[in-house]
Amino acid sequence: MKFNLDYNSASFFVDLLALTLLIIPLLWVFRKPLARHILYIFSGIYLLSFIAPRLAVFYLFYWLIVSALQRAVYITEHKAVSQPDNLSAAVVSRLVFWCAIILTLIPMLYWKIDEWSLVTFINLHANDTLALLNKTIWEIDLTRNIYAPIGLSFATFRALDLIIKTYLGLIGKLSVDRLLFYGFFPPVLVVGPIIEYEEISDKNDHPGVPAPDDLLNGGFRTAWGFFKVLFLTSLLQPSTMILSHYQGQDVLTIWIYLFVYTWFFYINFSGYSDIAIGLARLHGYKLKENFNNPFFARNVVEFWSGWHISLYRFARRNIFVPLGGYRKEKHIFAIACTMVAIALWHSLSPSMVVYGFYHAAGVIANRHFSEWRTKKGIKLDHPLAQALCIFVTYLFVGFAFPLITLPLGTAMSFYAALLGIT
Amino acid sequence: MRSIDAFLDILGYRASWAGIVRIALWTVLFLWLAGLMIPERARQDLFSTNVAGLPISPMITLESDPAFIRDVPLPEKGKHFRIAWISDSSSILYKPGAKLIDLTKMGDHKLLAVKTLEALRGLGLANAHIDLFLRVSLRCLETYTLTKLALERHPDLLIISVSPVFIFNNHAVFKGDSHFAKASAVWGKNIDTWPWLFLMPSPADHLWALLTHRFTVFSQAPVYAEEIDALKHDFWTSLFPPLKNTQNGEKEDSMTENSLVFWVIQRYLKGDLSVLLNDKNETVNSKWYRQVIRLSDFGENSFNHLIVRKTLETLKNSGVKAIIYIEQASQAMKDDPGAWAIYQHVKDTFRAYEKEYGSDKIRFIIDVPPDVLAKAVYVTDDDIHFEQEGDMDKFLAQQIFELSKEPEGTKNEH
Known about the structure:
Chain A is an all-alpha fold. Chain A has helices at residues 9-27, 33-51, 53-82, 87-113, 115-133, 135-143, 152-167, 176-183, 197-200, 212-236, 251-282, 300-306, 309-320, 331-346, 350-376, 383-399, 401-405, 408-418; one strand spanning 2-3. The longest helix of chain A is centred in the middle third of the chain and has 32 residues, at 251-282. Strand 1 of chain A pairs parallel with strand 7 (255-256) of chain B, so a sheet runs across the interface.
């Protein structure tokens, strides 16, 4: 017996939109940061409870553990910095840091390695916990669908980012309410983007209430996101059929469908980001962009600067740079590790390993090509040359899309059909 | 759209609170005007073909339609004896060999309500009209909501059929995705059900209830869903070549969204699904129901008890005549003494309710005489669903007929 673990994120955002209509007026009442944090923590937990209360329980545990880890990292790192001659303090600090990283990663890794096992574990035990807390909520939880830990990949990387920045001394010790506010900030709970703490912290003289500009821009952005997710993607939805029905189709049809599928994928994902960014703006928070016309990029590096930017930014800062990516002798290794990590964040599967190396090869080839061009003094400023670059980049990127969805064997069979190899 | 700020800068537009209010007012006006342009259509129902030409009004919309109740004109009071009948799949008389709960083929089956109506005519109650609140997989909370909705139409008599498998099953108090379990507008009318407004309907459900109440464009949207889908399909086929009907490799296993299956398998069968299967690896309905009835919680503080009590209180306070009958399980259930004992416990619990709430006007049918079901045929390997109802229709008709002769009153007393 298989369970449908899928969740339609649009439902969450409609809930959040409805709740936003209530929260916004309350922001004028809850002006103090602590009160505002509590309002958002309850909102996040409340919204997760409508997916299933057990999910809220799971995330509450998760973020409380992250809070403890963040404190431990801060305290040990602070001690190491204040006592530069104390070698054991530095060792302890490093040890605590790596323990925190591993502990933060464990649920996501467990999920990616053995999804059903984690799903069973979380659903059963979080539901058991509810039985101890409140019988009626436990009974309500039993009626909700069985879900994977929705949004865990995003939450994990947000938590990792926080811990790494704490270790680097960029973020101080966070009170529990601040940390849970970051953990349960509603717009980014289910489909990202992977925001950084600074984006929603109370720095930068955040007024605590939205301005008319925020409401106007947030409203338009949210509406545009819903238009993309509910209307445009539903128009392009039939293109997804090609992934399960490519056999026996003519080559041109497969190419056409793949072309549309890439747009379906992009519009759907970026639509959700638009909604998240728009809803955050309605609350007065300006989140960073997550997409920037990736299908009009002129090379693969530019593509990654415009595709799921928050993930790329995280990987660049926390994988590429620490691995010495800016040093020539480690450049290729760092690129390969970064791209494979980005790929594996989606799922731990052979096809995503191939996807990661494929894009790493693209980035490396692009770098060599740029160097060769510079040496030869070849410029690509002509509009036709630019258009050709965009086309080639799009072709390169789009060609790899089936790897995101299909198992490796099926993907190879798909490519054989795509290339007319029978 | 990331450049909305830049775009508005170019226009020289500066948002102001007055501007936001203006936009909101224009939006409301636009939605109202759009609603005027949409011709209103009747909402669809699963059982219209089963009751064609009969004085029976199917009241419940398709599962996908959040309106959940059709706008059916009230039969004239006095001219008709108006019955409201709330029931689940057990009052569908399944065509032999048919797949249960196949919603696309509901029109193939007969209904107990239709047979009972015919029997009522035989008894001389020729002016009976039935508001049929029939939905498969009806749970405790949905029954309560439907009771409230049925009473809003002031029936002369209300029939509620109670599933012994689900009525006290605290793992399935309601169906998670059921619109009846998110009935903001119904629960909002009573202060004692206000807490439910925060527990079951989500903020979006409240917003939807508000919008559908005020704007035709929203309330009619689900009715036009099929046409919108067809338009989208036409758009697609006009632009792109259709795919040949090929499927790569083996078909994927069907998946369930029924969380009850998960709890039963993981928590009570410890992952061993074989208990529920036959030699062909198919789930046997009777085994499933016998397992599910074991999840009954008879504790007074269970949510189910609370809801059943609320339902009975509502009936009592309404003054409407009512029949509450426990769906009769097949004697084959005795093969599983544990399940049979719980079934008996369900009946005992209702006997206690009968003492508390039973009256001249509220009649509990907990047991039926053995001869009523002597000729009944249950669906193969199923303890709950009928293929042939035996004399159940005549028995129910007799009960309704007797109750119809009781004088009207304002309150039910006992």
